[in-house]
Amino acid sequence: MLLAKLLEIVAAHVELLDEAARRGVDWGDTLSLYAVLHALQVHAQAVIDYLLRTCSLLGASVETPLACVQALQQRGLLEGGEAEMLRRLIRFRNIVVHQYGSIDVERVKRVLEGRGYRDAALVVRRIHERLREKGVEDP
Fold first, then answer.
1. How many domains does the chain have?
2. Could you give the C-alpha distances from 68 to 27, 45, 46, 97, 129, in angstroms and in order?
3. What is the DSSP string of 105-134?
4. Residue 76 Ramachandran class (φ > 0 left, ψ -120 to 50 alpha, else beta)
5. What is the CATH number of the domain that holds 18?
6. Does residue 104 lie in a domain region?
7. Distance CA 4, CA 2 (A)
8. Is residue 139 part of a domain?
């Protein structure tokens, strides 16, 4: 149940971020920047929570989201490129949450314009399908 809810949150934030990209963002406006940052943060956190829940369901004892990515890769649920993209997402989220005073606006702009957040959504959907194929249930 939790995994399905997290997928919904990821999908909703992909839509929000796509809308922001379509409308265009006034990067000089702090409120607009914060709106994009918040949407990216919630999206990334939902992806991270999805990964951590998956590790838990698989019995992988991990202490960090980065260790979870490694565990999922070792179990064949992630390919190399997917794992690296998720590591970047985790690092980006950590910067947004913990180093908010030193946000690189150009980096945020590249994330939004490159629409990498869509890639993360696709990866968690693929993991979801792989879990289903393996018969892993989320009670």
1. 1
2. 34, 14, 14, 19, 18
3. HHHHHHHHHHTHHHHHHHHHHHHHHHHHHH
4. left
5. 1.20.120.580
6. yes
7. 5
8. no
Is the CB of residue 28 less than 8 Å from the CB of residue 34? Answer: no
Cα separations in angstroms, 69 against 31, 105, 137: 33, 27, 19
Condensed to tens digits (0 to 9), the pLDDT of residues 1-56 reads: 899 999 999 999 999 999 999 999 999 999 999 999 999 999 999 999 999 999 99
Give pLDDT tens digits for 66-98. 999 999 999 999 998 999 999 999 999 988 888
What is the pTM (predicted TM-score) of this model?
0.94
The single-letter code of the amino acid at 101 is G
